[in-house]
């Protein structure tokens, strides 16, 4: 127990030893019954990996499963260098896309650059041998690609501009800001019933955002940056309140844990907190991140209801609530709330 009875998750969480293999997760409680403490779960038989819990019923089927481990995206760069080809190799962890170049060098080389992974191989090496080399090095490659991807995200965050055409990360996607109301054709069903209502309009599905979706803010074309930021943040905070509430309830149902209440925070140094009397706060800026990152923070804070520390038992608890949380945790460790727009 921490002396203050208050434990916070923040960027400066000390690096913890690898958690023990997570136990088999408790089955989700039926949604209609009151939340009761979870039954004690016996340690798992020594299997390598517990099965993920069944998808909770309250998640729309279109949403990615909560327990999906973070994949490192390896997008194909639009123009390939001269003489290069795009190739994807399946590995134990995930498929890795890369630019393959032939050269006169004598060995296979791996470089992570602006376009992601670039593999250079001698002319006489077969594609099968290249695949084998990528698979053999996949752990190193994915760790470097993950760092690279985090750097790219940071750059994108640093470039958010509070202006028409500015881009903003929302649930891990890049959405665009515009002022006024969308052209009728674009708005489609998203158009408000009362066209005079001054409300933001999202062209796309705010539950399943895609890169390039647009958030139309009800502001005049000459609105200054501060007004644009305030308006965009008000929308983001409303979305955060809804999204976090749904996800929190999914995890409460699944784990049988109870909380007293939760609220949005706007701390600049931490993502969430949990007090010993069951009050949870979640930083609204988490709404910028992909759903699995948000799930991780929620699972982390809920695990503190059982373990008010960052011990082995605590991480086992996190793993029980959210198996395969490690990649999401590692991504978040590289960001501070203060780095995010606004
Ligand atoms: Zn913590």
- Number of discrete helical segments: 7
Largest sheet: 4 strands, mixed
Shape: flat
- The chain-level structural class is alpha/beta
The separation of the N and C termini measures 34 Å
Helix and strand topology:
Layout: E1 6-10, E2 85-90, E3 95-103, E4 109-113, E5 116-122, H1 127-136, H2 138-158, E6 167-170, E7 173-179, H3 184-187, E8 201-203, E9 214-217, H4 225-255, E10 261-265, E11 270-275, E12 279-283, H5 291-303, H6 312-321, H7 326-333
Parallel strand pairs: 3-5, 7-9, 10-12
Antiparallel strand pairs: 1-11, 2-3, 4-5, 6-7, 8-9, 11-12
Helix pairs in contact: 4-5, 5-6, 5-7
Zinc ion binds at residues 7, 9, 300, 304, 310.
Q: Could you characterize the architecture of this molecule?
A:
- By secondary structure, the protein is an alpha/beta fold.
- The chain has 7 helices and 12 strands.
- A 4-stranded mixed β-sheet has the order 1-11-12-10, with helices on one face. Strands 2-3-5-4 form a 4-stranded mixed β-sheet. Strands 6-7-9-8 form a 4-stranded mixed β-sheet, covered by helices on one side.
- Helix 4 crosses helix 5 (291-303), helix 5 packs across helix 6 (312-321) and helix 5 packs across helix 7 (326-333).
- Residues 1-68 have low confidence and may be disordered.
- Bound molecules: zinc ion.
- The site of zinc ion (ZN) has 5 residues, from strand 1.
